[in-house]
Amino acid sequence: MASMYGGYMGKVMKINLTTQTTEEYPFSDRERELFIGGKMMAAKILGDHLTGQEQPFSEDNLLVITTGPLTGSGAPSSSRFNISTLSPQTGYITSSNCGGNFGYFLKKSGLDALIIQGRCSEPTWIEIQNETIVFHRANDIWGMKTGDVQSALDEKLRQKNGKIRKNGKICIGPAGEHLVLYSSIVSDERVSGRGGTGAVMGWMRLKAVCVSGNKDVPVHDQEKMVAHSKKWFKYLRNHPLTGEQLPKYGTAGLVSAMQMRSILATKNYTYGQYNDFEKISGEELAEKYNIVNKGCLSCPIRCSRTVDVDGKAVKGPELENLMMCGGEIMATAPSMGKLIYHIKSIDNLPSILKWNYELDELGMDTISCANTISFAMEANEKGVWKNGLCFSKTEELSKIFEDIAYRRGIGDELAQGSKRLSEKYGGKEFAIHSKGMELAAYEPRKSVGLGLGYATSNRGGCHLNGGYLVIMEGLGLAVNPTTYHAKADLTMMFQDLMEMISATGQCLFTSYAFFPAPLMKHPNAWYTKMVNRVVPYCGASVRLINKYPELLKIHLPVFHHTKGFEYVTGMDMPFGKYLRCGERGYNLEREVNRRFGVNVNKDALPKRLTSSLQDPNDPKSKVPLKKLKKVYYHARGWDRNGLPKKSTLRRLQIEVEQSSRG
After folding, report:
1. Which of 71, 196, 380, 455 could in theory staple to 505 by disulfide, Cβ–Cβ 3.0 to 4.6 A?
2. Three-state DSSP class for 374?
3. Cα 309 from Cα 147, distance rounded (Å)
4. Any alpha helices (H) in 138-191, and if so which ranges?
5. Residue (of 68, 51, 52) closest to 103 by Cα position
């Protein structure tokens, strides 16, 4: 359905794998105004189809691949796309944002989104060129790892066309084929990692999708957008986080700050620090192992590392990969009676580089995989589940990864994730997940706002969908990390902002520049210290903004996203309306999850994080989740059961017709 707005190609295609047929799916301009694109658009589509009775592995489920209006527009860091589905890992809808070039080429093919449903009779891959969709047998590439799949597809295209035209690909590895509940979808070297999207694709017997095209993405006001983008690029390059830290060290540059703030997840979240953290830091990676920095299309940040693994240049690990495979499973013994653990040896970083590459090739989420193994190690240590796995004993770890991906031996059990293992064997108090999704590398007992975000995240234990308040609690600013004051209101604001940024097709790292550069450059300056002290007393003011964002009919000088959105689409989008759109998306996801049983009891963290002190000398070093949720629900306009009130849905114009468009 053609659009009057810029940034949209105006067409969504629905693919039925069972019948190998396609049809255009209607998505109106009114829906674009309300649900924008990306994960919000996907939530609307899923909400119109899912009733709450569906199973992830069934022909009733959908795999929805969406772009945002800024995808391919030339805006900074705007090559992102989103994959949403009913998650086999959590039982709720999940969304997974991914970089690379697939989203760009999907737009170039003339499509804003793909809706995939059904199940192939045999392994299949799909070729899309300028809206033409062709189904191919994939028996010869079924079983291949992700890198080999993508190379094989390029060779097929070369043989067919005489050359390899520029294209974008998504594919699964052996883990997706064998329905590992946290298997991922890989695009070039980028990963749609969380929620088990790869398992849904594997159940569908869909090995890969390859897309290309030569259509131009329409821009409402090209001249103004070009001028604005130049300023935007410059701002990002000059900001200390997006222009210095991330380009120089990637996300791994946060390790040192996390150590200082006691938020390094160590030994299955038992501790928040360990000695020799420098050995897996961003500085160590940059100095000894980094070959070159890379970035996605149109991205000035260039946060990706390229490293050498067995003589091959491959994508290096991000912070979460370093920490989950480092401090989580390589911890040995405490240092001199302190609550600081050692890691195994000085040679651990090359091992982590290798493990990160292996997991990407197998198509598994590094966070959930490493966290599940860490749980299993502690369960063995405590005698809850005798499985032979031990902290710091990592000689067989590569084999364990393979066993999980192919569901062999103990790998068949580990493929279920820590929640299901704890339900089977015990140890629920130290199974570190929320809604069945394992937490990322940030220990929340010294970042309680992030703890609230983990618990209330729509897709489960996700730091990004949870609002990433740790950026204010130690990794950017230094707001009191254990106070509950203002944290609920700030969590809501940042969840809504990230919801909207993702929906537009941009990288969430661009949000780092939301914090004024002087505060980031001078953490010990009097004005920075003043901000840190004042923020906990601003809860009422933040709540007022969250409740009445339309009053902010302005464009913030530190937030270029709103003007960029206007110039690309032609929609009016001041900061307040931008925030409101994000709130609509967040509540829509919650409303769809209501059908699958989400409630106050599911917004939970394990007792280790809510009842056990990280530091015995600090009575505040635990997440006061019950108190935080009460304030958060009130701020959101949710009832005591953690569900959006009817008045809230009406205010946000959320109407979802189940199965109305079949």
Report:
1. 71
2. helix
3. 14
4. 146-161, 174-177
5. 68
CATH 1.10.599.10, domain 447-662, yes or no: yes
Q: What span, in angstroms and rounded, lies between the C-alpha atoms of 438 and 252?
A: 20
Amino acid 339: pLDDT:
61
Torsion angles phi and psi, residue 176, rounded to 5: -65, -40
**Stretches in the chain below the pLDDT threshold 70:** 1, 332-347, 656-662
Closest to 499 measured CA to CA, from 85, 101, 41:
41
Q: Cβ(71)–Cβ(108) under 8 Å?
A: no
Q: How far is CA 333 from the centre of its chain?
A: 32
d(C-alpha 144, C-alpha 447), whole Å: 41
- CA 476 remoteness from chain centre: 20
User: Which amino acid makes up residue 159?
Assistant: Q
Under a CB-based contact definition with an 8 Å cutoff, are residues 2 and 10 in contact? Answer: yes
Q: Give me the pLDDT at residue 660, please.
A: 43
Three-class SS state of 431 = coil
- What is the amino acid identity at position 447? S
Letter for the amino acid at 194? R
For 12-212, CATH number?
3.60.9.10
Q: For 128-158, what is each residue's pLDDT tens digit?
A: 999 899 999 999 999 999 999 999 999 999 9
As a whole number of angstroms, the distance between CA 109 and CA 575 comes to: 31
Among candidates 188, 208, 197, which has minimal Cα distance to 144? Answer: 208
Which residue pairs, CB below 8 angstroms and at least 24 apart, start in 481-484?
Answer: 481/261, 481/263, 481/446, 481/447, 481/448, 481/449, 482/445, 482/446, 482/448, 482/618, 482/620, 482/621, 483/448, 483/536, 483/620, 484/448, 484/624, 484/627, 484/628, 484/631
Compute the chain's Rg from CA coordinates.
Answer: 23
Q: Of 37, 367, 361, give the one whose Cα is nearest residue 217.
A: 37
pLDDT of residue 657: 63
Paired with 381 in beta bridges are: none
What the block records as the tokens of 90 is 């959590």
- Return the number of other C-beta atoms located less than 10 Å from residue 127's C-beta: 19
Q: Give the tens place of pLDDT for each residue, 291-322.
A: 888 888 889 998 888 998 888 888 888 888 77
pLDDT of 656 reads 67
Model pTM score? 0.96
The confidence score (pLDDT) of residue 503 equals 98
For the chain, which residues make up each domain, given as ranges? 12-212, 222-439, 447-662
| Separation of alpha carbons 243 and 640, rounded Å | 43
